[in-house]
Structures are given as C-alpha cells and as structure tokens.
Amino acid sequence: MSKSRALAGLRVGYAIGDADLIEALTRVKDSFNSYPLGRLAQAGAIASLEDEAYFQQSRARVIEGRERLNRGLDRLGFEVLPSSANFVFARHPAHEGARAGRRAAPTGGDRPPISRPRISDYLRITVGTDEQIDRLLSALSHILGNEPAAA
After folding, report:
1. What residues have CB less than 8 Å from 80, skipping those under 6 apart?
2. What is the value of pTM for the model shown?
3. In 3-state terms, the chain is what percent helix, strand and coil (to 5)?
C-alpha cells in the first residue's frame, strides 16, 4: 500500500491468497518483523481503502505528473524507461546518473547512488508535485547547460 495508497510511512500492506499460503507468509513475517502494526497504521490503511474517490484523484495526479516529468526529461535528451509506478528511471547519454542526481538534488543528494551495474547510470526520480517537477527540470536543464537554474 506504500505506492498505490501513498502510505509509505505506515508500512502497511495486505495479501489475499490460499489459507496455507497466508499462514506461511505470516510465519515468515513474524520471524523478522519487529514493527507490529499499530492502531493508527490500521486506521490509516482502512481509511485509504474506504476513500476510493481520493485514491482515484491521487492516482490521476501521479499519472499526469509522471507523463509531464517524462516529457520534460525527453526534451532535455534523457532516455526514460517505461514506468507504471510513482517514479521513473532516466539517464542522459552525456552524463553519469549518480553525479547528475547529486547536483540536481535540492539537498545535495540525500539518496545514495544506485550501485547495480545495469542501472547505475540511471536516476530514480519520484514523481512529485508540479512545482517539484518544475524545480527538478530547471536544475537538470542548468546542469546540462540549457538555461540558468531558477532561484
């Protein structure tokens, strides 16, 4: 539910399946999960499932934002992998992903670079608000030498 219902901080989810499968999942979960699911997290999860209208609005905003982000990155010469998530993987043929990401991040790069060889040149970019997307695209444009960064 962290992605689909924007509940990452609550660490909640659910599984539907055969009783034996659910029992096995529960055993595995209980063997390493030291964070029991509290009442507030349960209430948040239930509320998110009950408010379908909000979910659909939020989902539409993420899709629109992702498409807008993809168009902006494409205009800057990035290769963007297809995504149905709330983030995209993008790389620029002339720039190393981790270095460009550190330069574009507002905090100077608080996310460690991706170290897996097949994707180390890619930036993992979370779809944000329109304002956040604008700031990111402006910073990347500045890094690429296309225009000055917005203040």
Report:
1. 70, 73, 74, 88, 89, 90
2. 0.72
3. 50, 10, 40
* 123: β partners: 90
d(CA 45, CA 2): 10
Alpha helices for 51-124 (secondary structure H)? 52-75, 97-104
The H or E element that residue 45 is part of is helix 39-50
Count of all residues that appear for the chain in the document: 151
Domain boundaries, the chain: 8-50, 53-143
Of 69, 89, 65, nearest to 79 by C-alpha is 89
pLDDT in tens, the chain (151 residues): 877 788 878 888 888 999 999 999 888 877 776 667 889 999 999 999 999 999 999 899 999 999 999 999 999 999 999 999 899 999 998 876 555 555 555 544 445 555 666 777 888 899 999 999 999 999 999 888 876 555 4
How is 88-100 classified by DSSP, letter by letter?
A: EEEEBTTB-HHHH
* CATH code reported for the domain at 53-143: 3.90.1150.10
Q: Which residue has the tokens 């960064």?
A: 149
